[in-house]
Amino acid sequence: MAGISMAGFRGRTDSPVNLEMVPYPAFTVFIDFGDAELVDDISGERKRGSAVVGMAAGSVRGCGRDVDVLQVRLSPVVAHAVLGASAEPGATVVTLEDLWGRRDTERTQEQLRAAGSWDDRFLVMEAALARRHETGPAMDPEIAFVWGQMVTSRGRVRVERLAAEVGWSRKRLWSRFRSQVGLTPKRAATLVRFDHVAHRLAAGHSAARVAAENGFVDQSHLCRDVMAIAGMTPTAVAIAPWLAVDHIAWPAQEQAPRV
Protein backbone atom coordinates (compact mmCIF):
# COMPACT_ATOMS: atom_id res chain seq x y z
CA MET A 1 0.00 0.00 0.00
CA ALA A 2 1.20 3.52 -0.77
CA GLY A 3 2.11 5.52 2.31
CA ILE A 4 3.42 2.52 4.27
CA SER A 5 7.01 1.42 4.85
CA MET A 6 8.36 -1.27 7.18
CA ALA A 7 11.69 -2.33 8.65
CA GLY A 8 12.81 -5.00 11.10
CA PHE A 9 15.37 -4.72 13.90
CA ARG A 10 16.95 -7.57 15.79
CA GLY A 11 19.99 -7.55 18.06
CA ARG A 12 21.35 -8.34 21.51
CA THR A 13 23.83 -6.43 23.63
CA ASP A 14 25.38 -6.85 27.07
CA SER A 15 24.30 -3.38 28.18
CA PRO A 16 21.19 -1.35 27.31
CA VAL A 17 21.34 0.61 24.05
CA ASN A 18 19.65 4.02 23.81
CA LEU A 19 18.74 5.41 20.39
CA GLU A 20 17.17 8.84 19.95
CA MET A 21 14.40 8.95 17.38
CA VAL A 22 14.90 11.43 14.58
CA PRO A 23 11.58 13.25 13.91
CA TYR A 24 9.90 11.93 10.78
CA PRO A 25 6.81 13.09 8.82
CA ALA A 26 4.81 9.94 9.52
CA PHE A 27 3.21 8.05 12.37
CA THR A 28 5.50 5.25 13.54
CA VAL A 29 4.15 1.96 14.89
CA PHE A 30 6.44 -0.34 16.87
CA ILE A 31 5.59 -3.99 17.48
CA ASP A 32 8.08 -5.33 20.03
CA PHE A 33 8.88 -9.01 20.58
CA GLY A 34 11.84 -8.46 22.92
CA ASP A 35 12.53 -6.16 25.84
CA ALA A 36 12.71 -2.83 24.01
CA GLU A 37 10.75 0.14 25.27
CA LEU A 38 10.01 3.68 24.10
CA VAL A 39 10.76 6.52 26.49
CA ASP A 40 9.42 10.06 26.22
CA ASP A 41 12.05 12.12 28.03
CA ILE A 42 9.72 15.12 28.43
CA SER A 43 6.73 13.37 30.00
CA GLY A 44 8.75 10.52 31.48
CA GLU A 45 6.30 7.95 30.09
CA ARG A 46 7.64 4.53 29.11
CA LYS A 47 5.81 2.15 26.77
CA ARG A 48 6.52 -1.52 26.10
CA GLY A 49 4.93 -3.96 23.71
CA SER A 50 3.18 -2.27 20.78
CA ALA A 51 3.15 1.51 20.61
CA VAL A 52 2.52 4.39 18.22
CA VAL A 53 4.65 7.55 18.04
CA GLY A 54 3.00 10.64 16.60
CA MET A 55 4.60 13.08 14.19
CA ALA A 56 5.05 15.64 16.96
CA ALA A 57 7.68 13.44 18.61
CA GLY A 58 10.90 15.20 19.44
CA SER A 59 12.05 13.66 22.69
CA VAL A 60 11.52 9.93 22.21
CA ARG A 61 14.21 7.27 22.39
CA GLY A 62 14.25 3.52 22.17
CA CYS A 63 16.21 1.40 24.59
CA GLY A 64 16.76 -2.27 25.34
CA ARG A 65 19.19 -5.20 25.29
CA ASP A 66 17.21 -7.93 23.54
CA VAL A 67 15.73 -6.06 20.59
CA ASP A 68 13.28 -7.66 18.17
CA VAL A 69 11.06 -4.95 16.72
CA LEU A 70 8.89 -4.43 13.66
CA GLN A 71 8.74 -0.76 12.70
CA VAL A 72 5.91 0.53 10.49
CA ARG A 73 5.72 4.07 9.19
CA LEU A 74 2.36 5.45 8.06
CA SER A 75 1.78 8.66 6.16
CA PRO A 76 -0.84 10.82 7.90
CA VAL A 77 -3.30 10.05 5.08
CA VAL A 78 -3.03 6.31 5.75
CA ALA A 79 -2.75 6.76 9.52
CA HIS A 80 -6.05 8.63 9.65
CA ALA A 81 -7.85 5.52 8.41
CA VAL A 82 -5.63 2.81 9.90
CA LEU A 83 -5.21 4.27 13.38
CA GLY A 84 -8.52 6.11 13.49
CA ALA A 85 -9.42 9.72 13.97
CA SER A 86 -8.43 9.36 17.64
CA ALA A 87 -4.76 9.11 16.64
CA GLU A 88 -4.11 12.82 17.10
CA PRO A 89 -0.76 12.99 18.88
CA GLY A 90 -1.87 14.87 21.98
CA ALA A 91 0.30 12.29 23.71
CA THR A 92 3.60 11.68 21.94
CA VAL A 93 3.50 7.93 22.52
CA VAL A 94 0.35 5.81 22.92
CA THR A 95 -0.14 2.06 22.98
CA LEU A 96 -1.50 0.37 19.88
CA GLU A 97 -4.17 -1.19 22.09
CA ASP A 98 -5.48 2.30 22.87
CA LEU A 99 -6.17 2.79 19.16
CA TRP A 100 -7.04 -0.71 17.92
CA GLY A 101 -8.52 -2.23 21.04
CA ARG A 102 -7.21 -5.23 22.94
CA ARG A 103 -8.74 -7.92 20.73
CA ASP A 104 -7.37 -6.71 17.38
CA THR A 105 -3.99 -5.83 18.87
CA GLU A 106 -3.50 -9.23 20.50
CA ARG A 107 -4.65 -11.09 17.38
CA THR A 108 -2.15 -9.22 15.21
CA GLN A 109 0.66 -9.74 17.73
CA GLU A 110 -0.02 -13.48 17.88
CA GLN A 111 0.06 -13.76 14.07
CA LEU A 112 3.32 -11.81 13.94
CA ARG A 113 4.96 -13.99 16.59
CA ALA A 114 3.97 -17.11 14.64
CA ALA A 115 5.48 -15.76 11.42
CA GLY A 116 8.64 -17.58 10.39
CA SER A 117 10.57 -14.70 8.79
CA TRP A 118 10.66 -10.94 8.43
CA ASP A 119 8.97 -11.22 5.04
CA ASP A 120 6.15 -13.18 6.65
CA ARG A 121 5.85 -10.55 9.37
CA PHE A 122 5.64 -7.80 6.76
CA LEU A 123 2.85 -9.68 4.96
CA VAL A 124 0.90 -10.23 8.18
CA MET A 125 1.18 -6.57 9.12
CA GLU A 126 0.28 -5.36 5.64
CA ALA A 127 -2.86 -7.51 5.70
CA ALA A 128 -3.85 -6.11 9.11
CA LEU A 129 -3.32 -2.54 7.91
CA ALA A 130 -5.28 -3.19 4.69
CA ARG A 131 -8.28 -4.49 6.67
CA ARG A 132 -8.36 -1.42 8.85
CA HIS A 133 -7.79 0.91 5.92
CA GLU A 134 -10.88 -0.42 4.17
CA THR A 135 -13.15 0.29 7.13
CA GLY A 136 -11.43 3.32 8.66
CA PRO A 137 -12.43 6.98 8.33
CA ALA A 138 -11.34 8.66 5.10
CA MET A 139 -9.35 11.86 5.23
CA ASP A 140 -10.88 14.90 3.52
CA PRO A 141 -9.61 14.92 -0.08
CA GLU A 142 -8.62 18.56 0.36
CA ILE A 143 -6.39 17.67 3.31
CA ALA A 144 -4.89 14.71 1.45
CA PHE A 145 -4.15 17.04 -1.49
CA VAL A 146 -2.48 19.61 0.75
CA TRP A 147 -0.33 16.94 2.37
CA GLY A 148 0.68 15.62 -1.04
CA GLN A 149 1.72 19.12 -2.14
CA MET A 150 3.84 19.49 0.99
CA VAL A 151 5.64 16.23 0.28
CA THR A 152 6.14 17.03 -3.42
CA SER A 153 7.56 20.48 -2.64
CA ARG A 154 9.66 19.08 0.24
CA GLY A 155 7.91 21.42 2.64
CA ARG A 156 8.62 24.60 0.67
CA VAL A 157 5.09 25.76 -0.01
CA ARG A 158 2.90 28.58 1.31
CA VAL A 159 -0.18 27.56 3.28
CA GLU A 160 -2.17 30.49 1.87
CA ARG A 161 -1.61 29.23 -1.69
CA LEU A 162 -2.69 25.72 -0.76
CA ALA A 163 -5.85 27.06 0.89
CA ALA A 164 -6.68 28.99 -2.27
CA GLU A 165 -6.09 25.90 -4.43
CA VAL A 166 -8.63 23.83 -2.48
CA GLY A 167 -11.08 26.73 -2.21
CA TRP A 168 -10.91 27.06 1.58
CA SER A 169 -10.10 29.94 3.84
CA ARG A 170 -6.76 29.82 5.63
CA LYS A 171 -8.60 29.43 8.95
CA ARG A 172 -10.66 26.47 7.72
CA LEU A 173 -7.62 24.72 6.27
CA TRP A 174 -5.69 25.28 9.49
CA SER A 175 -8.52 23.83 11.60
CA ARG A 176 -9.30 20.79 9.41
CA PHE A 177 -5.64 19.97 8.83
CA ARG A 178 -4.88 20.13 12.54
CA SER A 179 -7.81 17.87 13.42
CA GLN A 180 -6.95 15.18 10.83
CA VAL A 181 -3.15 15.28 10.68
CA GLY A 182 -2.43 16.27 14.27
CA LEU A 183 -0.15 19.19 13.40
CA THR A 184 -0.68 22.65 11.99
CA PRO A 185 0.05 23.00 8.26
CA LYS A 186 3.10 25.15 9.00
CA ARG A 187 4.52 22.62 11.46
CA ALA A 188 3.86 19.74 9.07
CA ALA A 189 5.63 21.54 6.20
CA THR A 190 8.56 22.30 8.49
CA LEU A 191 8.81 18.62 9.42
CA VAL A 192 8.72 17.53 5.76
CA ARG A 193 11.53 19.96 4.93
CA PHE A 194 13.53 18.78 7.94
CA ASP A 195 13.20 15.17 6.80
CA HIS A 196 14.68 16.00 3.42
CA VAL A 197 17.47 17.95 5.12
CA ALA A 198 18.22 15.05 7.50
CA HIS A 199 18.53 12.57 4.64
CA ARG A 200 20.79 14.88 2.63
CA LEU A 201 23.04 15.30 5.65
CA ALA A 202 23.09 11.53 6.23
CA ALA A 203 24.05 11.01 2.60
CA GLY A 204 27.24 12.98 3.23
CA HIS A 205 26.37 16.46 1.93
CA SER A 206 27.71 19.48 3.81
CA ALA A 207 25.44 21.60 5.99
CA ALA A 208 26.28 24.64 3.85
CA ARG A 209 25.22 22.87 0.65
CA VAL A 210 22.03 21.50 2.20
CA ALA A 211 21.13 24.95 3.53
CA ALA A 212 21.56 26.52 0.09
CA GLU A 213 19.53 23.80 -1.64
CA ASN A 214 16.59 24.01 0.76
CA GLY A 215 15.85 27.69 1.07
CA PHE A 216 17.65 28.53 4.31
CA VAL A 217 19.19 31.98 4.68
CA ASP A 218 22.54 30.46 5.61
CA GLN A 219 24.12 27.53 7.43
CA SER A 220 23.39 29.07 10.83
CA HIS A 221 19.69 29.22 9.96
CA LEU A 222 19.75 25.52 9.10
CA CYS A 223 21.55 24.69 12.35
CA ARG A 224 18.97 26.55 14.42
CA ASP A 225 16.05 24.82 12.71
CA VAL A 226 17.61 21.35 13.01
CA MET A 227 18.36 21.91 16.69
CA ALA A 228 14.81 23.19 17.33
CA ILE A 229 13.21 20.17 15.65
CA ALA A 230 15.55 17.31 16.55
CA GLY A 231 17.39 18.62 19.59
CA MET A 232 20.73 17.84 17.96
CA THR A 233 23.21 19.47 15.60
CA PRO A 234 23.32 18.76 11.85
CA THR A 235 26.51 16.76 12.44
CA ALA A 236 24.72 14.54 14.98
CA VAL A 237 21.72 14.12 12.67
CA ALA A 238 24.02 13.03 9.84
CA ILE A 239 25.29 10.04 11.84
CA ALA A 240 22.10 9.25 13.75
CA PRO A 241 21.68 5.43 13.87
CA TRP A 242 17.92 5.79 13.46
CA LEU A 243 18.39 6.96 9.88
CA ALA A 244 20.25 3.76 9.00
CA VAL A 245 16.98 2.03 8.04
CA ASP A 246 16.17 4.68 5.44
CA HIS A 247 17.89 3.53 2.25
CA ILE A 248 17.43 6.93 0.61
CA ALA A 249 19.76 8.41 3.23
CA TRP A 250 22.70 6.31 2.13
CA PRO A 251 23.31 6.64 -1.63
CA ALA A 252 26.95 7.53 -0.95
CA GLN A 253 27.55 4.37 1.05
CA GLU A 254 29.18 1.41 -0.68
CA GLN A 255 26.92 -0.99 1.19
CA ALA A 256 23.57 -0.22 2.77
CA PRO A 257 23.29 -0.99 6.51
CA ARG A 258 21.65 -4.31 7.29
CA VAL A 259 18.49 -4.37 9.38
Biggest beta sheet summary: 7 strands, antiparallel
Unreliable stretches (pLDDT < 50, length at least 5) are 251-259
- Continuous helix count: 11
CA gyration radius, whole angstroms: 18 Å
Average pLDDT figure: 86
Structural class: alpha+beta
**H/E element string?**
EEEEEEHEHHHHHHHHHH
Number of beta-strand segments: 7
What's the helical proportion of residues? 40-55%
Instruction: Assess the beta-strand content as a share of residues.
Output: 15-25%
Overall form: globular
For the terminal residues, how far apart are their CA atoms?
21 Å
Polypeptide structure, described:
The chain has 259 residues and is α+β, with helices and mostly antiparallel strands. Helices cover 45% and strands 20% of the residues. Strands 1, 2, 3, 4, 5, 6 and 7 form a 7-stranded antiparallel sheet that branches. Helix 3 runs antiparallel to helix 4. It is globular, with a radius of gyration of 18 Å. The relative contact order is 0.13.
Write the layout of secondary structure elements.
Elements: E1 4-20, E2 27-32, E3 37-40, E4 46-48, E5 50-53, E6 60-74, H1 76-82, E7 93-95, H2 96-100, H3 102-114, H4 118-135, H5 141-152, H6 159-166, H7 170-181, H8 185-202, H9 207-213, H10 219-230, H11 234-238
Antiparallel strand pairs: 1-6, 2-5, 2-6, 3-4, 3-6, 5-7
Helix pairs in contact: 3-4, 9-10
